[in-house]
Design goal:
Layout (H helix, E strand, L loop, with lengths): L15 H28 L4 H32 L2 H24 L3 H24 L1 H4 L5 H26 L5 H20 L18 H11 L4 H31 L4 H26 L7 H19 L11 H5 L4 H29 L5 H25 L4 E4 L2 E4 L5 H22 L1 H16 E6 L10 E5 L6 H8 L4 E6 H4 L5 H6 L3 E3 L6 H16 L3 E4 L17 H8 L4 E7 L18 H4 L2 E7 L10 H12 L4
Parallel strand pairs: 3-9, 4-7, 4-8, 5-6, 5-7
Antiparallel strand pairs: 1-2, 8-9
Helix pairs in contact: 1-2, 1-3, 1-4, 1-6, 1-7, 2-4, 2-8, 2-14, 3-4, 3-7, 4-14, 6-10, 6-13, 8-14, 9-10, 9-13, 9-14, 9-15, 10-13, 11-13, 11-15, 11-16, 15-16, 16-17
Length: 638
Amino acid sequence: MSGHNQFELLRQRRFAPFFLTQSLGAFNDNVFRNATLALVAFQMGLDGAQVLWYTNFAPALFILPFFLFSATAGQLAEKYEKTRIIRAVKVFEIAVMSIAAIGFLGHMPALLMVVLFLMGLHSTVFGPIKYSILPQALHPQELVGGNGLVETGTALAILFGMMLGGWVMGFSIGPVLASIAVVAIALAGYAASRAIPLAPATSPGLKINFNPLTETWRTVRLCTQQQAVFNSVLGISWFWFFGTALTAQLPDYARDYLGGGLSLNLLALGVFSVGTGIGSLLCEKLSGRTVEIGLVPLGALGISAAAIDLYFAHPGSAMVRELDVAGFLAQHGSWRVLLDLGLVGMFGGFFLVPLYALVQNRTPRGQLSRVIAGNNILNAAFIVAASVFGWASQQTGFHVFGHWLPMPALTVPQVFLVIGLLNALVAIYIFTLVPEFLMRFLSWLVIKTLYRLRVEGIENLPDEGPALIVCNHVSYIDALLIGGAVPRPARFVMYYRIFRTFGFAWMFKAAKAIPIAGAKEDPALMEKAFDDVDAALADGQLVCIFPEGALTRDGEVAKFRGGVERILARRPVPVVPMALRGMWASIWSRRGSRLRLLRIPGRLRAHVGLVVGPPIAAADASAAALEAIVKGLRGDNP
């Protein structure tokens, strides 16, 4: 693939102004929210009950618009040009932040609560555009890197926004500084939005339904049309539950278990945010610039392991109090706590970025904004559920039908343990429903462990629609290599004896491989295989065959058999030729099969390649022509 990396997008107009606009929006949200909470809690002389009411009411007000207006926002982003909506949203932000300035200067918490609701509305309208505009601005191989930058920018904007909002309110003229800050950031966001290139409407003929109840239901149902997309949406929403449940406990954790105050809370949140940013940025490197959902199981496993270890790192209350950052770092076990928080964030990036990229990659363009809106609705529901869970987990019991039902209150470390275990159970459930996640993880793991795979020409693979992939057959793991390199799921035609291999049959079934036999072995199974191939192509899927019919015995490309012509005669779809390079020396090939284990030391992490040629029309794709093309792609590197 190209050696370009995601950071080059920050110098390109098709991405940089949008990245800056969305980062400034998240930054301003958190400057305003934290400044509001600091004003209410420390500068207005309110009693404890009033402060508690405002601090608990504020998050509910911000999240409410996501339930009320997400469905409408998704329709607007689909029907109209997105950049104009972004600019209108930024003008709205300037007006709202001007009202916020009045609230700060006049010490009017009720007005600030109204502003908080309006900023929630601002985020609701911007949300569907935030992720649906990326596939219009970026190439498919840039989606992972672009999403990684967006997640990193958002995580850091939230962190620095919280820091700035609390910091300015520490001054005697805090309300004045906060007023200047929020209006200035809103103006900067609008200025950045002026440079975003146009993003045409993806469904201009859409008829907007303004009924929030019926359209919300339709929008959520739209997410369920593809199982992989829907489970990705559920995975994203679950991460919001996990992240909300974890970060909501950090203030109490910093005070009661780490022995510090605001500075340690910010340190813990900062480490988590930086970890999320690092994980998000690493996704492009680890995935080879494809939508590599194999990282999702790795992320889920890492999140659970780090969260569970966070419980064991510091299960008891702090022995000392009022520690600053330096004092905390000098304590035994402090670095383990920070490492766990950083790893939770990093593996969270591995989990989240590929899921967003999959939703963008697999959802039809004319539905993507509405699917993202549906995702935002579910995100909001999971955030509310996480808040309820965090509160309920620390209660000693509840009144149920007039009877007191006692229950043990969980400590904060125990909450970390519980959500770590819950995350593992949710991950297992999702991967059971969609085995593709686990299959891609196994492919990714094998490829990264055994080889350094270089893929060339992956842009020649169509982003959607049916296609027949033909490739030379060199080793027993060719399907694993191709399946891990191709961003779309592919159905592989496989010799039935291999398909039924003991211990691996479940994996081949999960991958929806198509077993085939020779005409003399099992003519019925052969006919069924051709029927299954045709049905998959009719459904718009990718099907991969190895026209040689068997592994090469000498490293050369054998004669292509006529099965490929039979498939195309029945279903004339584009043919994508591919060639594997460097696999003949692999321990998985038939070269010197009795001595293959002796090749492990020299072949571990060996350089191998997959070259993808331009699509060939079915009318031009004879077996002989395809054989010649694959030989040319492979070159002299068997």
